[in-house]
């Protein structure tokens, strides 16, 4: 398995919906790892992408728990340092034919392929039955980029 350590060009990662929700909703025990991944994006250690379709999912889920204003504030902040990965006809065409159990996961995978993403960061790697792009957990990414385990 290829490591990201020592890459000259910045690694492009797609943040799965669950990683962002861990942070927005302070979900334990996942918050610290997910926050550390997002910090790597904020610091420019990696290029963070979020699928365009994920933004509507995030709004819907976070809004239920935190209300409209807080949700929009969180998403605005996120958009200042994460790039939006395009979801277009090509992404949907791939998602409709790739035979994943979960269609949202198929869209995430297809988004990563079309946007030339190096890895998808997720807590649910088994949901992605592929080898390319790489599928990594937050802890795997943290270990590869920092040579140190997550903050506990």
Helix content: 40-55%
Tell me what the CATH architecture is: 3-Layer(aba) Sandwich
State the secondary-structure class: alpha/beta
Could you please say which CATH topology applies here?
Answer: Rossmann fold
**N/C terminus separation:** 26 Å
The number of helices is: 7
Radius of gyration: 15 Å
Largest sheet: 5 strands, parallel
Total strands: the figure is 5
Can you write the helix and strand succession as a string? EHHEHHEHHEEH
Give the C-level CATH assignment. Answer: Alpha Beta
Strand line-up across the major sheet: 3-2-1-4-5
Beta fraction of the residues? 5-15%
CATH homologous superfamily name? 5'-nuclease
Q: Give the mean pLDDT.
A: 91
The stretches of 5 or more residues where confidence is low (pLDDT under 50) are: none
Structurally, how many domains make up the residues? 1
Shape: globular
Model description:
The protein has 152 residues and is α/β, with parallel strands linked by helices. The chain has helices at 17-24, 31-42, 52-66, 68-81, 89-97, 103-114, 138-146, and strands at 11-15, 46-51, 83-85, 119-121, 134-136. α1 packs across α2 and α2 crosses α7 (138-146). The relative contact order is 0.20. The model has no long low-confidence stretch (mean pLDDT 91).
